[in-house]
Specification:
Distance between the termini: 102 Å
Helix content: 25-40%
Order of helices and strands: HHHEEHHHEEEEHHEEH
Shape: globular
Largest sheet: 6 strands, antiparallel
Strand order of the largest sheet: 6-5-4-3-7-8
Structural class: alpha+beta
Radius of gyration: 44 Å
Number of helices: 9
Number of strands: 8
Length: 233
C-alpha cells in the first residue's frame, strides 16, 4: 500500500467535509481561505516541503515563485548608476601633465654643445627634454642616440628656473672670439612653451654662450638642477 503523507490526508479531509455534511455551507463559511492556503502550502510536491503553492482568496492556485519575487524586489531596490555623472567626474579629473604645468604651459628644453672637429665634421651633442611626453632624447653628430623618461614636475621646475634666469643669461652680449674658432665648443640653450589646451602659439627663445655672456653662477645653478633631474649632458 502506498505511504500517505499526513499533511495530504489533512488537506483531503478539509476539502471533503463540506460535501459530506448537511451543513456543508456553514462549514465552508467557517473554514476561511487562509486556513486552506496554510494547509495546502504544507504539502510539498514529491515529498519536498520547500516546493509549494498558495491559494488565492477565490480558491484558485497562485504559482508565482517566491524566489522570483525576492529577486525582483532586490533589483528594484538596487542603487542606479548615472553614466553621465560618471563620465563628467572622469573628465574633470586633472591630468598629471596639467597639474605639473601650473601656469597652463608645457615646456620643451634643448641644451647642447657644438663646435670642435670630429671625424664626421663639427662635433655636436643635443639633449631635448619634453614635459608633455615626460621623456628626454639625446643625439650626437656621430649618429649616436639615446632616450629615457623624466618626471613632468622635474621638467616643469627646470623650465621655470631657466626662465627666471633668462634675463641674466641674455643681459650681456658676448665679446671676443667664440671658442669654436679655436677648436673649442659653444653651449646652446633653447626654451619653448606650448599651451596645455593646444590653443595658441608655441613660444621659443634661444641663447648661446657665444651670443651672450652667461653669468657663471647662473650656469652653475642651471647645470645642478639639470643633473638633479637625472638628465644627461
Amino acid at each position: 500500500m502506498p505511504r500517505r503523507h499526513p499533511a495530504a490526508f489533512l488537506v483531503a479531509t478539509l476539502l471533503l467535509l463540506p460535501a459530506c455534511s448537511s451543513g456543508g455551507d456553514d462549514l465552508a463559511s467557517e473554514t476561511p481561505p487562509a486556513t486552506l492556503s496554510a494547509a495546502v502550502s504544507e504539502v510539498a510536491e514529491d515529498g519536498d516541503p520547500t516546493a509549494s503553492s498558495t491559494l488565492a482568496p477565490d480558491g484558485s492556485a497562485d504559482t508565482a515563485a517566491t524566489g522570483e519575487e525576492d529577486a525582483l524586489a532586490a533589483e528594484d531596490s538596487a542603487p542606479t548608476v548615472d553614466d553621465e555623472s560618471v563620465a563628467t567626474a572622469a573628465a574633470s579629473r586633472p591630468d598629471e601633465d596639467v597639474v605639473a604645468a601650473t601656469d597652463g604651459r608645457l615646456a620643451t628644453i634643448t641644451m647642447g654643445t657644438q663646435g670642435g672637429l670630429c671625424p664626421e665634421g663639427v662635433c655636436s651633442r643635443h639633449v631635448i627634454v619634453d614635459e608633455a611626453d615626460q621623456a628626454w632624447s639625446a643625439s650626437t653628430s656621430a649618429g649616436e642616440s639615446s632616450e629615457g623618461e623624466v618626471e613632468a614636475a622635474a621638467v616643469d621646475a627646470l623650465a621655470r628656473l631657466i626662465e627666471s634666469h633668462w634675463a641674466a643669461l641674455t643681459a650681456t652680449p658676448f665679446e671676443g672670439d667664440c671658442p669654436t674658432a679655436h677648436d673649442g665648443q659653444e653651449r646652446v640653450l633653447d626654451l619653448a612653451f606650448a599651451p596645455v589646451d593646444g590653443t595658441g602659439d608655441r613660444v621659443s627663445q634661444s641663447t648661446s654662450s657665444c651670443t651672450h655672456a652667461w653669468p657663471a653662477d647662473v650656469v652653475a645653478e642651471i647645470d645642478a638642477a639639470w643633473d638633479d633631474a637625472g638628465l644627461p649632458r
